[in-house]
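Morning run. Coffee first, then this:
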Amino acid sequence: MKLRLYNPEVFQGNIKSLNYFEGWYFKNVSAGLDNVLSFIPGISLAKGDRHAFIQVIDGITCKSEYVTYPLDQFSWDRKKFSIRVGESIFTENHIKLNIDDDKIKVSGQLYFDNLIKYPKTLLSPGIMGWYSFVPFMECKHGIVSVNHNITGRINVDHEQIDFNGGKGYIEKDWGTSFPEAWIWCQANNFRDRNTSLCFSIAKIPWLGKFFTGLISFLYHNNKFYLYSTYNKSEVSDVEHSEGFVRLTLKNRDSVLKITTKQKSAGELKAPVLGNMTRKIKESIDSEVSIELYDKSDKLIYTDYSRRAGLEIIEKIFDYL
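And here it is:
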């Protein structure tokens, strides 16, 4: 258990659990930004419907497919991140896809190198910080790769997509259910190829009540700027309208201003008590602008990214 706690990328669950889900999110953007494909392998251990799955999301066409597999076709490595769903294999260094379904056919391999890993410490095993040690949380989150380069090609319904020179990102979630309300944004196709951003704000149930939780980072110039509830960061200056969000994140040393604009979005299945029955909208074709300031309000860096991931559950703004 201790080994898994300090390696959130590996399978955290128990195949005998009930009302449990776990899923890994692989976002892949081609070099020319012409293609965006996300693959989500995982398991759903709901009462009466226990299965493995792979979700496939095309960010350009908004096509989304959910392919199920018998639970005995899900396997994992106990010591390192390596899982198999059906004939497809997912690791932090490559994915091998072999999906042959009436709804969609996907084959090919992608290889990842120059991975940037989220920093870990004894008291902070990942982006959850010390919340990693708190039991009975509804949903936990992990970052596998903040940023990496891609080589390889994928065939989707007999059409070949070239990802050589592209950029990738990997994260994961596990627990019982997604939160009631949240906003999530991820981008690493900035003009500066080494920059990566992810922020998530959610309504977190806790001991019969709730709090608004923040987990976020900006990776730029070989440095992580962390904005999270556990390091006493703040969210302010929130503006929103349909598909548009502007807000400010502030920690002790810096201020990050973020503007997001949601574009095309597809349907994504999300867990409720382990059952993948909730339907949400996710875009992986959105736009993000950022401005980073030091504590003296001096502008350090500004940039813009296309092909950003964005989910907005509007009710979250009732808690900001």
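Residues 2-319 form one domain. Good start to the day.
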